[in-house]
Amino acid sequence: MTGSSGPHVGIFVFDGAEELDVVGPFEVLAAWAELSPLRPRVTTFSLDGSGVRLAKGLCVVPDRAAPDVGPLHVLVYPGGAGTRPLLADPEHLAWLRGLRADTPLLASVCTGALSFAAAGLLAGRPVTTHHAHVDELAALDPSALVDTEARFVDDGDLVTSAGVSAGIDMALHLVARLDSVDVARAVRHAIQYDPAPPV
Questions:
Q1: Whose CA, among 78, 107, 125, 165, lies 20 to 30 Å from 22?
Q2: How far is CA 94 from the centre of its chain?
Q3: CA-to-CA distance for 21 and 43, rounded, in angstroms?
Q4: Which residues belong to any copy of the DJ-1/PfpI domain (predicted)?
């Protein structure tokens, strides 16, 4: 989505990212872009602009390469098995630290928080992640204050969410925070999101 002067949200995509970690927040934020007078812009990007294959095989062609995405107001960083090689990539972690310096709000979904931890971005911060990876996050940064019950944790310039579908809840929270509760409710109505489980 282009041609907007409103808040710019970038969703980082990479091989092995969990599908719903990417498309759940994207659906919420794209609906926000359609409904809000703020005219936010949502951009997907990969490190080099190439297409990526997500964890269960869905292929995504991003809008931009990381060097071309431009200034962001919000970075959304998904989780998934593809975070594992990124955790061990010093160049990637340095890139994340650089984004931290220039981006007012970082948001992770699921095990995306592990990459933030490996980059040293969670020290002493209240955070959450997928319930099965709490110990892994704690090992990466023992000073992080991990909330094992929350769907998402908002700590000002850092918002982390629990596993997979919690990224939708977090994205709706971002809309309410960056715009208004009324607009977030309009987005929720538009996408017919009702979290009461059917079984």
A1: 125
A2: 18
A3: 15
A4: 9-176
The 10s digit of each residue's pLDDT in 138-159 is 999 999 999 999 999 999 999 9
CATH of the domain at 181: 3.40.50.880
Domain membership flag for residue 2: no
pLDDT over 70 (residue 57)? yes
Residue identified by tokens 């000073």 is: 143
198 within a domain of the structure (yes/no): no
What is the Cα gyration radius of the chain? Answer: 16
Neighbours of 2 (CB within 10 A): 6
Contact 4, 33 (CB under 8 A): yes
- In terms of C-beta density within 10 A (0-12 exposed, 13-18 middle, 19 or more buried), how is residue 49 classed? middle
* Count of structural domains within the chain: 1
> Apex CA 117: angle with CA 114 and CA 121, to 5°?
135
Tell the residue number behind the tokens 């409904």, with chain if given. Answer: 35
